[in-house]
Amino acid sequence: MERFDRNTPVGMVSYFRHCIKTGDVKGAMSCFDAQGVYIDRTGIAIRGLQQIEAAIGHLCAWRPDIKGATPHVTMLDNLAVWLDKWKMTGTTPDGHPISMDGHTTCLMKKDERGIWLWLVDNPFGAAVLDV
C-alpha cells in the first residue's frame, strides 16, 4: 500500500489524486476542510461537504489518472497557495475516453493535527474567467 505524508501540501495532493484514481470518495473528501469550497469548470463555487462530495463522487467514478507538473507552493503559517499544471486521462463509466488538462489555483489550510486540506479547490484556475 502506498503511503502519503499529508503533513505537507505535496503529500496531501498526491493522496487526493490517488483517491480520485482509485475511486475512493471518502478518502478524497477527507482532503477538504469543513468550510471547503470546490470551484467547478464553469466557475461556480460549490459549498458544503455534501455538495462537494457529489462533484468529487462523479470524478471518482471515472477513476482518472491525474498527473501534475512541479507545483509552485507559497506558504504562510497554516495557509498555502497551490499552483500547478495537470493532465487527466481516463475512461468514463460508459466507456468514453477522457483527456483534460488545466492549471490549478487552490488555497490549502493546515488543521490542528498538522494535515493539509483544501480550503478552496479550483482545479481550473483562471480558465473559469473564460466561461
What does this protein structure show overall?
With 131 residues, the protein is of the alpha+beta class. It has a single domain, classed as Nuclear Transport Factor 2, Chain: A. Helices cover 25% and strands 40% of the residues. It contains three helices and seven strands; from the N terminus they run H-H-E-E-H-E-E-E-E-E. Strands 1, 2, 3, 4, 5, 6 and 7 form a seven-stranded mixed β-sheet that branches. Helix 1 crosses helix 3 (49-62). The chain is globular, with a radius of gyration of 14 Å. The model has no long low-confidence stretch (mean pLDDT 95).
How would you briefly describe this protein structure?
The chain has three helices and seven strands, in the order ααββαβββββ.
